[in-house]
Amino acid sequence: MFELDAFHLARIQFAFTVSFHILFPAITIGLASYLVVLEGMWLRTKNDVWRSLYHFWLKIFAVNFGMGVVSGLVMAYQFGTNWSGFSQFAGSITGPLLTYEVLTAFFLEAGFLGVMMFGWNKVGPGLHFFSTCMVALGTLMSTFWILASNSWMHTPQGFTIENGQVIPQDWLAIVFNPSFPYRLIHMAIAAFLSSALFVGASGAWHLLRGNDTPAVRTMFSMAMWMALLVAPIQAVVGDMHGLNTLEHQPAKIAAIEGHWENPPGEATPLLLFGLPDMEEERTKYGLEIPALGSLILTHSLDKQVPALKDFPKEDRPNSTIVFWSFRVMVGMGLLMITLGLVSLWLRYRHRLYHSRPFQWFALCMGPAGLLALLAGWVTTEVGRQPWVVYGYLRTIDAVSLHSTLQMSISLLAFFVVYSSVFGVGYVYLIRLIKKGPQPVDTLTSNTSGTPARPLSAAESVPEEERI
């Protein structure tokens, strides 16, 4: 039975903070690369549409970047306060990897972010573009090191254990562990898709409001091309990641599929929907397609997939959670592919900027990338349970010794602070988006004197559009 003790409260607290945090880096990673494209196109064509879009999304990037940094600091402290057992066991690996992130990604971003934000009229176009590229590279390098650390926790290698602590032996093996390449690419594409849908929803909102300008059309069109081209690639990468997970974490795959046992001589079916019951060890009300599970997971019609009953009860992930989180992720992915295909059809019919039902569809799909990303992280992290370092350190052995009262108070404090501080940030982001891309003559007047302030960007939003 689930008990709301200090252990579970610590897990809930970390899940809350990390879920809140990941929303900002996901958009930041995608927008940073998007800004590189926008500024590069402006340098190449000198078309003021690209410059207008660059300055519009630069302000939104700045707010996301700031909130991402602040929310990320909290997680680093939680490793010591709530998960001291994990830090003591694996700190010799996770500590250096996080340090490498600071020495590479953070230093790169810190060195060039100021030039990128405030140097448009202070440095030459080439140096400014280089600064934008370096900030984008920094976000990707940060992704590299974070995913290296997290992937090692899923597929650990390159170490020995002495006196209950991990001792690194081969850093290349640690960084480039078996799941790392798949998870890095999967996460990077997820960030690009999340940002593209965010951009597309912004463009759709302005089109629905009658703000049919070249800048709005351009950002809407780019987002739809991104959905069309990249969403299918993400599906292929996800399939490859699934095959890698089947090899290294078969219990996770069994939980995702809600698959409990293998009758002799029968291929594994694919459960489309159902309700996994951990107590009764079966999936109720299952709707399945015979043999399709074997075809998808083994690319064969006769091979069987490991079942949950093949593993001891204490080593099984919670199938009830990951079964549905995985299907939410896949469902959002299918909607993204649909969005891209419909946009291609409307583009062919010259209706892309005039179809209001499609614009409403694109607007509603704005948070779909982030929802899929969160569902994917829930699937992979809950699916790793009951381990923190898979096969070596259980989650129950990693938690710090705190009372239930202490964890309850701190969780409540996090909820109140995050809801208030970041709630204000979200409101401000919406106001920025409502303002929309501005004509170049307006940008020139705003940037000819002192550096532009990101927090002044929404001051001219019409009163009727403020929230």
UniProtKB/TrEMBL annotation:
Region of interest (Disordered), residue spans: 442-467
Superkingdom of this protein's organism: Bacteria
Record-annotated membrane-spanning stretches: 12-36, 56-77, 97-120, 127-148, 184-208, 220-237, 321-346, 358-378, 409-429
InterPro entries tied to this protein: Cyt-d_ubiquinol_oxidase_su_1 (IPR002585)
Gene Ontology biological-process entries: aerobic electron transport chain
Identification of the protein by name: Cytochrome ubiquinol oxidase subunit I
Family the UniProt entry places it in: Belongs to the cytochrome ubiquinol oxidase subunit 1 family.
UniProt keywords, alphabetically: Cell membrane, Electron transport, Heme, Iron, Membrane, Metal-binding, Transmembrane, Transmembrane helix, Transport
Protein's organism: Enterobacter cloacae complex sp. Mu1197
